[in-house]
Amino acid sequence: MSTKIVIGVLCAVISVLIILLFFSVFTWKSSVPVVRMPDAPGASTIQYTPPPRPKFAFPNKEQLANIRAMSKKTIEKVMDGIYIANNYALGNVVMVETAHGLVIVDTTENAKSARQILAEFRKITGKPVKTIIYTHGHVDHIFGTPVFKEAGTQIIATRTTVEFLKREQGWMEPFLRRSRQIQSGSFDEDYALKIPIDVRYKGFTGETLVWPTVTFDKYYTFKQDDTVFELYETGGEAPGHLIIRLPQKKLVISGDLFYASFPNLSTPMLAPRSAEDWIAGLEKILNLDPDYLAPCHGLALRGRTEIRQRIGQYRDATKYIHDETIKAINAGKTVEEAVRTIRLPDQYARLPDLREGYGRVDWAVRGIYHCYTGWYDGRGAGLNPLPAAVFSRELIQLSGGVDKVLTRAIKAQKLGEHQLAVELADLVIKANPDEKTARIIKSYSLDYLGYLNQNLNMFGFYRSAAAMERKKAGYKP
Ligand SMILES: [Zn+2]
């Protein structure tokens, strides 16, 4: 036997011995921290009188007038052969007329709206629908398809959109249904304060999903009659999102990469959207340099200069928030520190295209952290935190009991410090889930938080959370 083999075998044996020794020494110690569960605090004895109902700030009179004006159903003629159906549903439908047929881009969230739109389109042309394109897989873009689809209609989407739909309409559907109900403000609605508008999430039950028949990655082009269509996968609003160029018409159909709000990069209960892809998608639109832009929410943009300016600003503002967030991540700031310091510069914040009516900058910052980093901030306490009940019971004991904490919460509520009121009440709920007074106090401050802001999603989240607390307390307002 050669020396090399002997040395090799010896090394292997020694390695195994070291590994065995390592495990024999270290594995018998548990890595679970010692947790002692303090006793639950006693029930509160305080009498609580709810505050007056908050004034309904969302929407205010001006917004209500805007909503009414914006909800006017319109068939917009962008140019010969290109039409946008706007405000029939949450999402637009774009119709492109070719020599002997139609291309339909997106189909809205339900058959009822789709039928109204098709009836309007039929006043313009009787040509058959040869192609349907899904810009992405969000519910407000896909569920009207059975109305538009004819025998032999091809349906085009990216392969990633099909994967997205398998997930969102398949194994993640119960969660997504619930989170959308919460976001719309209609969860446990019997327990919510009444409001003058209908925010109910309609659920999209009974709608039929029609699966794409043609899928692609990155880029796809086809000709219908003499009209050329170029499809570019961009991502952004959703994985697999695409935009469409019609080079002969100098038109880009931009899907959801542009609408009249700061982009919704992160909706709080869902997986964040890629800011990087979104920015690259806007850059793609600028590179395609269209004279017309047809978005899937809102009306068309016209003129090269106007499009370059507005898409350019939208891209710059999104990139600014992205880059500032990356700087904060690399500087070792926590997400809470970043949220408190990163703001849209005034030159962008004052633009109507970038107001925070739908997407919000602070939520975008959280989403970007979520995209690029893990859940642990590196500072020790968050690596293996105590169960919430343990920590809250300790704190309540230190504070002198439940009544003291809730008295402070009520005082904060009276002073308009609603977030403090919510967090103090929540401390008590965590310590003792049966504590009804804490839930009722919390619900009213949640209502105030919702009513005092003018972001649609924020309003919905608070309204649902308030209703959920009241339901658990068995208390109707
Ligand atoms: Zn949409």
What is the gist of this entry?
With 477 residues, this protein is an alpha/beta fold.
Describe the SSE topology.
Elements (H helix, E strand, L loop, with lengths): L2 H24 L34 H10 L3 E6 L2 E5 L6 E5 L4 E4 L5 H14 L4 E5 L11 H4 L5 E5 H13 L1 H12 L29 E3 L2 E6 L2 E7 L8 E5 L4 E5 L19 H14 L3 E4 L5 E2 L1 H27 L4 H7 L4 H4 L11 H12 L15 H12 L2 H13 L3 H14 L4 H16 L4 H18 L4
Parallel strand pairs: 4-5, 5-6, 6-7, 11-12
Antiparallel strand pairs: 1-2, 2-3, 3-4, 8-9, 9-10, 10-11, 12-13
Helix pairs in contact: 6-16, 7-8, 8-11, 9-11, 12-14, 13-14, 13-15, 14-15, 15-16
Within the largest sheet, what's the order of strands? 1-2-3-4-5-6-7
Q: Judging by the overall fold, what is the CATH architecture of the largest domain? A: 4-Layer Sandwich
Look at the helices and sheets and give the structural class. Answer: alpha/beta
Shape: globular
Name of the level-1 CATH class of the largest domain: Alpha Beta
Which hetero compounds are present in the coordinates?
A: zinc ion
CATH level-4 homologous superfamily of the largest domain: Metallo-beta-lactamase domain
Q: Mean of residue pLDDT?
A: 92
Provide tags for this entry.
477 residues; alpha/beta; Metallo-beta-lactamase, Chain A; Serine Threonine Protein Phosphatase 5, Tetratricopeptide repeat; seven-stranded mixed beta sheet; six-stranded mixed beta sheet; 16 helices; 13% strand; globular; binds zinc ion
